[in-house]
Amino acid sequence: MISRSPSLIGARVTRVEDARLLTGRGRYVADLDAPGAVHVAFVRSPHAAAHVGRIDVTRALAEPGVVACLTAADLAPLARPIRAESRTRGYRATDLGALASGVVRHQGEAVAAVVAESRYVAEDAADLVGVDWEPLPAVTDPRAAAAAGPFVHADLGTNVILEREFRTGEVEPAFRAATLVVADRFRFHRHAAIAMENRACLAAWDTGRGDLTLHSTTQIPGMIRDALADILDLPGHRIRVVAPDVGGGFGMKTILYPEEVAVAAIARRLGRPVKWIGDRREDLLTSSQAWDEQVDAELAVDGVGHILGLRATVLCDVGAYSMYPWTASIEAVQVISFLPGPYRVPAYRGAVQAVATNKAPMGPYRGVGRPVSAFVVEGLLDRAARRLQLDPGEIRRRNFVRPDEAPYRSASGVVWDTATFAECLERACRIADYEGLRRQQQEARAAGRSFGIGIASYVELTGVGSAIPASPGADISTGTEGATVRVDASGTVTATFAIASQGQGHETTLAQVVAGTLGARLGDVRVVHGDTAAGPIGSGTYASRTAVIAGGAAVRAAEAVRDKALVIAAHLLEASASDLDVADGVISVRGAGDRRVTLREVARAAYAAGRRLPHGLEPGLEATRYYDPYFGTASGATHIAVVEIDRAVAAVRLHRYVIAEDCGRVINPLVVEGQTIGGLAQGVGAALLEEVVYDGGGQLLTGTLLDYLVPMATDMPPITVEHLDRPSPSTLGGFRGVGEGGTIGAPAAIANAVSDALAPLGIEITELPITPERLFQLLAVC
Amino acid sequence: MSEPVTVRLTVNGVAHEGRCEPRKLLVDFIREDLGLTGTHVGCEHGICGACTVLINGEAARSCLMLAVQANGAEIATVEGLATGGTLHPLQEAFREHHGLQCGFCTPGMLMTALDLLRVNPQPTEAEIREGISAVLCRCTGYHGIVKAVEAAAKVLVPAKRV
Amino acid sequence: MKPPKFDYHAPTTVDEAITLLSRYGDDAKLLAGGQSLMPLLNFRLARPAALIDLNRVEGLAGIREVDGQVRFGAMTRQRAIEFSPVVARRLPLLVEATKLVGHLPIRSRGTIGGSIAHADPAAEYPAVLAALDGEVVVRGPRGERVVKPADFFQTYLTTTLGRDEVLTEVRLPAMDGKAGWAFEEFSRRHGDFALVGIAAIVAGDGARCTMARLATAGAGPVPVRLRAAERILESQGLGDAAIEAAAARAAEIVEPDSDLHASAAYRKNLTRVLTERAVRRAVTRLGGR
Hints:
The complex is a heterotrimer of chains A (782), B (162) and C (289).
Chain A: H1 18-22, E1 38-44, E2 50-56, H2 58-62, E3 66-71, H3 72-75, E4 82-83, E5 95-96, E6 103-104, E7 110-116, H4 119-128, E8 130-135, H5 142-147, E9 160-168, H6 171-177, E10 180-188, E11 191-192, E12 200-206, E13 211-216, H7 221-231, E14 239-242, H8 258-270, E15 274-277, H9 280-286, E16 289-290, E17 293-301, E18 307-319, H10 329-338, E19 348-356, H11 370-388, H12 392-397, E20 408-409, E21 415-416, H13 421-432, H14 434-446, E22 450-462, E23 481-487, E24 493-497, H15 506-518, E25 525-528, H16 546-573, E26 580-583, E27 586-589, E28 592-598, H17 599-608, E29 622-627, E30 633-646, E31 651-662, H18 669-689, E32 719-723, H19 741-757, E33 767-768, H20 772-780
Helix pairs in contact in A: 10-11, 11-19, 13-14, 15-16, 16-17, 18-19
Chain B: E1 5-11, E2 14-20, H1 26-33, E3 52-55, E4 58-61, E5 74-76, H2 89-96, H3 106-119, H4 125-132, H5 143-161
Parallel strand pairs in B: 1-5
Antiparallel strand pairs in B: 1-2, 3-4, 3-5
Chain C: E1 7-9, H1 14-24, E2 28-31, H2 37-42, E3 50-53, E4 63-66, E5 69-73, H3 78-82, H4 85-90, H5 92-98, H6 104-107, H7 112-118, H8 124-131, E6 135-140, E7 143-147, E8 153-155, E9 158-159, E10 166-173, E11 180-186, E12 196-205, E13 208-217, H9 227-236, H10 240-253, H11 264-284
Parallel strand pairs in C: 1-3, 2-3
Antiparallel strand pairs in C: 4-5, 5-10, 6-7, 6-10, 8-9, 11-12, 12-13
Helix pairs in contact in C: 9-10, 10-11
């Protein structure tokens, strides 16, 4: 038996990142200094759709301090268009140039890049670029756009970029046999990620070596490097992509953006470092948006609330382009993949159409499709419960996949390795004092107040391995990550990963995994990530995968190093490796604690080699290992939202919030709680505040943070989070992903709470966010 | 006029002088001309609060002020909080209570909370929420931040009495 | 989002500022606290040839009591008003309204003169100015004039302030120490502009209402004194029925517009509800504290 420092995994340790971030010593892209760097401002389309005629750059070039002014024609020889391919049948890819040529397809699309000595001057000169715009009719209504032209991409001859359908069981007979069918049209409006750090990048071209270094606010440095190799026609080893400190991503920074290509190409052309620091206006106009669906859904149940069938037709407005690498399928298909939720659904038909419009492109954003799935299926379950006079908790209990049924293949084909759904519900009800809340509700109703309790249960697939692509059909691999664990001669440990962090605290949590597995002291482990030149091959951080996949790779690599360290220690101590314990950087003979060596001594021996190593043992003390969890693992939770509605002013007040979740083996409770509550806040925004609004001409009406409203501290309720801590049986280390769940459950739970509060008035929420205006309209017709 | 102007100010107790166009935003002057990049730019229209610094002791948006307007002012930024490698009790509380994730709003959040605790040394939870609603954080859901400010208030109040 | 080029002037006297304004004609902007103008510059929605910064003008900030009035130099910061003992004593309504102006870091810079001259219809100070029937002092090349709110606010972001005039002072009559007051507003989030706000002051004697002052923010292009609603209170008293009738009348008077965040119908509803709430809360404060 070998003891490790397992107490480190699961310990509530404060984060190593914090020291620099709290003192203003973080290094975000905008903070990076590059001698001789010039700044880019893009000339962006004021129109949602337009032919781009002549571009006159003469006045801009005459402005003092302007270095260059480039258009699509200038960059074409340097960069191919970005194109997200997919094997999915019937999928239509779209070309996206670093700068638009010929046609612009959404407001804010760039047609020229002005390069100047400062951003101020670049913006001055961008104002002086003359563009002959010939506005085209804007496509903004996806339902109309699915049926007829005009087409966002004329060459495609359709606006439907993708259609997909899942079908399981006998759907029509199930509905004929039902005692009750509940149906509604659900509308989930468009959202934006609003990372506090806007997108930015800095490209430096080394003319001597012929290589490119791109610092970018990206979540996926590995995938950006690989894509740039193709687009810029450079060998991969000539490109280094670095994600330094990054100020939030939430999925929005998992895309290869045209600005990254443009800045890289311009740096190569000019032979100078080129910096683009996107501003908030650019973020709101051009960063990927999310969750824009209309869902017609019906649920068939028997007389006691058992689900017999579910069918849904989803219309997904994917905006102007199918973005690399995920394609427009990721959001659209996730909605129908996860509609069956954590329930036994014997018959299911889910169909989705992804429709292009002249709006900013859709991309993955925290939860990806599943906030919408949960809103729909949880809303339908509550409707059924109300009609059958069942408690909403009870109808869920009757339909959850049971623990003994796991592994369970869902109606859409997703495999749940475990099914702790009922346990999450019971735990959440207990924490919230559900019965007490119902009594409180009765008292409130008797007093004429609208008090509501909303339950939402969900399950998601996290740490998705190679069996199921993170984005269906996309031509990328997302199922693996690597880790290199190296003990240097001073006995300290460097663990290198290809993942990137945007605030998740990987430098702490992955260090806990490495130190805990290896038996090193936590302070002796340094995690390096976000740099394609630094370590193993991998793609990045997205899809709640890092704890599972990079964590699994860390376990493997640390185990390999530990095993070798034990062999060397056994040699030094003249003992058998199987008699050794390792903890806190010390290896000792079990039962003879004075016979010990430190990890440092072992490392010195490993590199000194010679007689200090067992005969034939390769010198060195490091290992690189990869991990593929293959299927991935189920993360689930139950959310309970408690709301009170001020009917007179049509306002929803979140009174309390409870989450019971199964995120597997917890690496660091502090971080898990932070991820969950942070995710919840974005779900609160989705439910009550946030909405991207375009007018009928494709003009963005929410172009400031006074109009696109993200939650403030005053919008958040008191929150209780508890973890089930059931190690996943199907992942190394037992970890499950926890990055997105908070966002998935909240819109559904809050919508259900509002419907519950207003049930005496017969109001059921079908549209999110529940703005005061929408609520006023609903109350006005009562 | 629009010609460069000289700006003299004190940042974290250190006198600085620089020349810039009158249109240069204070936040850009602090970051680019003085090299203090701890203060962040998040929206440039006064909503997100990432650029909040103390100007003559009062929290204000450095994106809504021209550098030239700060002539003669005493400015405090996040870089001045820790002394000699020891975190300020507010910073310590943020670490202890996981009051930050990506760290981008953190400098503005810290300076805002510092001002809040100065005008209201023992705020209620509701007052803390109201005070820090001046700064948007997209990572934490504010939970850890509220707890951190509560904890810091407890530490800072007795310290002041001494 | 960097401001365009402009000439920058930082006069030290009002006269100097007026001379500069005259020189630039329509093409200069006065910079007070900057909390509204700077975003417009950063978005390049405002592109003045010159910025005339009032922050170095001497004697333009300060609070003093004169003849039953509290007089605010135009450059008095909202933050100074929030923490002023004089204002707390004489104008508690203004303190309550001030706490709703953005957030403290905004109020550190924002000024009373700037807020009123900017004339955002959703802002709190214009509503308080209207409710208290205060006055603003304006100086130009032809001298000084004192303007009542009804003659000052014209429409959205537009006042009768001449292009060569500077708002120098805001004068608010000190409130009757026995009066009750409230500023009620509804906004999407804390510190956001009000969808509708109601400033209320009532004085009474038992159930009798001797004086009522009601004014709106956000319920139309300019702050509106709800005189017909005031008359209902003054004639019918401060009982439930009178308050409800006054609130209903308030909603009839206002002519709000629809925008991204609220329809006209919803704003009318808010006007009714918030008027009722403001008056009720004001009534609870009757008789001094």
